[in-house]
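Each lists chain and fold; for instance:
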Amino acid sequence: MPHYKGLQTEIIDLCSQDTAGDFETMTKAAINRVYRRLLQAISADELRREFTFSTTSGTSQYGMPLYVKTVLNIEDPTNDRRIYDISAREFDVNYPGDSTTGSPTKAYPLGVYGVQTQPSSAAVVRAASSSSSDATNFFVRVTGYVSGVLTSEKLTLTGTSNVSTTNSYSSIEQVTKLTTSGYSWSGNITISTASETLTTIPVWWDSPRHLWYEFYPIPTSSITYTVRCLARKPDLLNNEDWPDIDENFHSLLVNGSLMELCPAIGKTAQGAVAAANFERDFRDFKSIHGKRPNKTTMFSDIHAEATTVGLRQPAIANVDY
């Protein structure tokens, strides 16, 4: 039973522990730590995806959707061209203080923020869940700038009703979810002002990080762009979630978790066995799913006669002889 719930049950049984309580929480966290390591080991923690977004006249900076990790290409289908990705350094050198407007031709990664849309002016920030269950023991911490001073507030949610900050924020740096021990989120959290939505945090995300881009020239109209990107894979959350790795290696999630959890409950020997099994299978996992090197190797010119094309090179050990 390699779905998320099945993995939890197997690990808890092998550790001779009861379901629910602190150990189940520890088990879930351990599984996701191992899962994240496995995905990163073979560069499989990303998905190629495509989405669209539209500019607004007079606005040059835009946040990408939450799942976007890296932008690969921005296509302008209205003008049949690509928006060229430049560096922040190139932007600073060539366009300092430039207020040129028009149809954008270039863009650069501005930074990463906790919201997809910043307040258009200093405003009170609100938080609400899509589930009435997320109340009393559920909290959101908002961190941002108030009159130029970095300020942080903790909000206690009341389910689907908006809860507001005391301060008015000109920009938001970070938004973080947290709960009282033993409680789990049921709904998505919407962070907003009275007039605009700043971000929506899915159940499985604890702190959103949005990649922002700045466009040049400053848009003078609404243009819908097609963006290709590398998108993040979420952690395992629901009982039915299926780990996105080869099923033959789902045992890595069990052994990887056991080698972390067993010493904590006094089963050091069992943890050592799990660690040995994990390292053995992890080598096979990487060798089968590892990246192929993207390179071209040039062999030495070992002809006895002279050549008129290029320079002769010494023979390469273990390659040419």
In short: Residues 75 and 174 are 29 Å apart (CA to CA). DSSP finds five helices and 16 strands in the chain.
